[in-house]
Amino acid sequence: MPSLVAAFDTKCGKSVPAASMTMLRSTQFLGKYTPLQAKSWPGAKRVLAKYAQSKASGAGSGNDIGALINSMPAETMRPFVDAMVQQEAAKAIPAKECGNIGRAITLLAPLPAENIGGLASFLFSMTNVKNPAICRNGKS
What's the CA gap between 123 and 137, in Å, rounded? Predict the structure, then answer.
């Protein structure tokens, strides 16, 4: 969540109400996600390796990328992935949707951090989303 909030701030920080951005940047909001980052990282790293394997082109290259991701020390890889997520998310946010995204984040803010992933999974299953696009048009 901190990387996504930073991406939103980069893209939309000047076009949404200042009070919303102050709330999103606050330690009270982001602080509830920080403890979960270390706990969630091993699973996120596995998902990233599988995603790389499924998207790589050429014989064997997906397995090579997945193996590389799995072999890298987590403490080395996580800052890189956080920066990549922030950059790609900022590029993918349509400027015309900043208000709607800001409103959604403000509505989600009071929920316990542990509920956000479960809510996203629930919404994906209810709307029959099987493979949500990670990057615009499936490209990075």
Answer: 21
Q: Report pLDDT digits (tens) over 11-66.
A: 988 888 877 778 777 777 788 888 888 888 888 888 777 777 776 655 555 567 77
Q: What is the gyration radius of the CA atoms in the chain, in angstroms?
A: 16
Tokens of 45: 């790293």
138: left (phi over 0), alpha (psi -120 to 50) or beta: left
CA distance readout (Å), 54 to 58, 68, 127: 11, 14, 23
CB-neighbour burial class of residue 58 (10 A; exposed 0-12, middle 13-18, buried 19+): exposed
Assessment of whether the complete model's pTM goes beyond 0.70:
no
62: nearest Cα among 47, 71, 49, 76: 49
